Amino acid sequence: MRPEDAGRIEPDKPAGVSKVKSKWKPTGPSGSVLQASQPSTSIGRKLRFAMMPISWIISILVVYGVFLILAAISSTTISGLLHTSSLWPLAVFLPAFFFGKVLGLIILNLVAHSIPAAKRVFESEVAETGRHSYSKAMKDLSKIAFITGAATLLGAGLFLFFRW
Fold first, then answer.
1. What pLDDT was estimated at residue 50?
2. Residue 146, by phi and psi: left (phi above 0), alpha (psi -120 to 50) or beta?
3. Could you give the C-alpha distances from 77 to 13, 41, 73, 93, in angstroms and in order?
4. Separation CA 45–CA 121 (nearest Å)
5. Residue 87 in 3-state DSSP?
6. pLDDT-derived band of residue 108, with 50, 70 and 90 as boundaries?
7. Could you tell me if residue 58 is left (phi over 0), alpha (psi between -120 and 50 degrees) or otherwise beta?
8. Mind listing the pLDDT tens digit for each residue in 126-149?
């Protein structure tokens, strides 16, 4: 750009926009290009979106159940557990919430796999877009459930030990 052209906007591009395109693409550990999300068909996306509130409800119920169990162990109420000046309730809440979310996704996969119409939609989506299959999703979710479940147990133990 010449000094006399400074401040002048070209008609085919807005100010501050360069025609130079970056060749950098984010890559994963294996060197493959990362995608923002997995490819999806519109019917599969709508079906997943319609079922998603169920997994959030399951997550909230798991958190409630964990605090109910902890209240029974410590012979108090849930509100009695949460009346503390420390942040130890977060040691239970956060891992239990993620554990519940993973359990909710596992249950949604089981429900979708047991409904023939939903199963057909997701199987055709796997064939069309290359999304991960039911068995791969369940295997990965099981691993994550094991890790978050262990973190929930650890957080609950630490909470009971250090809460006062």
1. 86
2. alpha
3. 63, 47, 10, 16
4. 10
5. coil
6. very high
7. alpha
8. 888 777 888 898 999 999 999 999
Closest C-alpha to 99, from 135, 146, 57: 146
- Tokens 């939903």 correspond to 118
Largest Cα span, the chain: 79
Would you call 98 helix, strand, or coil by DSSP?
helix
The sign one gets for the Cα dihedral 66, 70, 73, 77 is negative
CA 39 distance to own-chain centroid: 16
* C-beta separation of 103 from 65 below 8 A: no
Using alpha carbons, list the distances in angstroms from residue 90 to 60, 95, 133, 137.
14, 8, 34, 28
Alpha-carbon gap, residue 161 to 45, rounded angstroms = 44
Is the Cβ–Cβ distance between 99 and 152 less than 8 Å?
yes
Q: Is the pTM of this model over 0.85?
A: no
Decide if pLDDT at 89 tops 80.
yes
Is 39:129 a contact under the CB 8 Å cutoff? yes
Neighbouring-strand partners of residue 27? 33
